[in-house]
Design a protein that fits this description.
Elements lengths: L6 E4 L7 H12 L4 E4 L4 E6 L3 H11 L8 E3 L3 H6 L6 H10 L4 E6 L6 H4 L4 E5 L4 H10 L3 E2 L14 H8 L5 E4 L10 E4 L6 E4 L5 H8 L4 E2 L4 E2 L2 E2 L14 E5 L4 H9 L4 E6 L11 E5 L3 H17 L4 E5 L8 H16 L2
The structure holds threonylcarbamoyladenylate (TXA) and magnesium ion (MG).
The site of threonylcarbamoyladenylate has 29 residues, from strand 5, strand 6 and strand 10.
Length: 342
């Protein structure tokens, strides 16, 4: 693909400069690509109504065209315009969780081009809460199709530097508002059936969804319908670092030492306070004990160890409790992807 210059603009996360936002909005209206922060991870945005612009997202990311994109909108009223059916449960979830890290999958209208949905008849809609994302949506006056701003199958970016490293030279602009506060991609819930189904666990738990929906909410067992995977992001091979990831239940010391003895360069990610504070020859990243604070820093830790060039990353598996569910989900996907690489 054509190499281009990627501009990076610093922008205040709480009070974004209107001239910078106006420039980004103009790029989107011209069919360009802008990476921007959301409360979860950085997104790679294009005008969702411009099929050519959206096609460029797939090229820039190396993303398979069957994997649908989330359409970001400024408010629930705009979301309803792109839905051919807006069930009462969608309204209840939107009222409770928007703006915020929830993507609601509904039947789409013809206004949404096929390239956005991977040819499917549904569309994922989300109103992000990050002030920069909201300012951009309002200024552009457009729905913005945006996957996470990383090369396909890799770890999502939580800082502008992560975006620059993977997509620099492929997109027009990166809005840099510092680290994203959440750090884990949105919960994706489908409301096209009788009861809602979670396609991707995330910051909003199934229990919280049930409380707001007033009905049972289940987890998706990934399956294919009409040849289109119902939620391709549920494929196990997503969200992986370059290094091989190994999950470890309990103290990581023994596994780290044996991998080092096997001649591998090893990094590790453990929770505070680590059972073994230092291991010779092993680069350690210590993350907070609290799940919300941990989620905010996990991807940056994976990027840091990847960039340091380690062969393997040993991660202490967090406890099997509801607040760690989405984090464990991402870690297990990352492990299975990297394991298949050998
Ligand atoms: O937090 C997030 O969701 C971030 C920020 C940028 O908003 N976006 C994000 O997008 O993670 P992406 O493309 O990396 O992941 C979107 C997930 C994928 O698993 C995709 O398959 C699923 O949502 N998805 C999107 N539209 C869908 C649809 N119509 N039906 C089923 N799954 C859908
Ligand atoms: Mg992604």
């Amino acid at each position: 693909m054509k190499e281009r210059t990627t501009a990076i603009e610093r922008v205040d996360a709480r009070a974004p400069d209107e001239t910078v936002i106006a420039r980004a909005a103009a790029i989107l209206r011209d069919g360009g690509l802008v990476a921007f922060p959301t409360e979860t991870v950085y997104g790679l945005g294009a005008n969702a109504l411009d099929a050519d612009a959206v096609a460029r997202i797939f090229t820039a990311k190396g993303r398979p065209t069957g994997n649908p994109l989330i359409v970001h909108v400024a408010d629930a009223a705009s979301a309803a315009r792109f839905a051919s059916q807006w069930p009462a449960v969608a309204e209840r979830l939107a009222t409770r969780f928007w703006p915020g890290p929830l993507t609601i999958v509904v039947r789409r209208t013809a206004a949404i081009p096929d390239v956005v949905t991977g040819g499917g008849e549904t569309v994922g809609l989300r109103v992000p809460s990050h002030p920069v994302a909201l300012a951009l949506l309002r200024q552009a006056g457009l729905p913005i199709a945006a996957p996470s701003a990383n090369r396909s199958e890799r770890v999502s970016p939580t800082r502008a530097e992560h975006v620059q490293r993977s997509l620099g030279g492929r997109i027009e602009l990166i809005l840099d508002a510092g680290p994203t506060p959440g750090g884990l991609e949105s919960t994706v819930v489908d409301v096209t059936g009788s009861d809602p189904v979670v396609f991707r666990p995330g910051p909003i738990s199934r229990e919280a969804l049930e409380a707001a929906a007033g009905c049972p909410v289940s987890y998706c067992v990934p399956r294919r319908i009409d040849g289109v995977s119902r939620s391709p992001g549920m494929a196990r091979r997503h969200y992986a670092p370059r290094a091989r990831l190994r999950l470890c239940d309990g103290d990581t010391a023994e596994l780290c030492r044996s991998r080092t003895r096997a001649g591998r360069s090893v990094g590790r990610i453990v929770r505070h306070p680590p059972a073994t504070p230092e291991i010779e020859g092993v680069r350690s990243v210590v993350l907070p004990a609290d799940s919300v604070a941990y989620a905010a820093k996990l991807y940056a830790a994976l990027h840091e160890l990847d960039d340091a060039g380690v062969d393997e990353i040993v991660v202490e598996l967090p406890p099997d409790r509801p607040e760690w569910f989405a984090i464990r989900d991402r870690l297990m996907r990352a492990e299975s992807k990297s394991a298949s690489d050998g």
